[in-house]
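Appendix B. Chain record.
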Amino acid sequence: MGALAWLLIPLVAAIGAGLWGSWANRTRKARSDGPELDGYARFRAAMEKSHSGG
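Structure tokens predicted for this chain:
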């Protein structure tokens, strides 16, 4: 019976990881990368501005 419990632990963990992965992928598709890309463009512009001054 103890061996069955040790086999169930990774099985439950794998099922939980699959559910979490599918949920995380669903929310990523629903949200666009627009805000992240805009923030990166502002960061690049600020870095270029600070390097060009000195």
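Further analysis of this model is presented in Appendix C.
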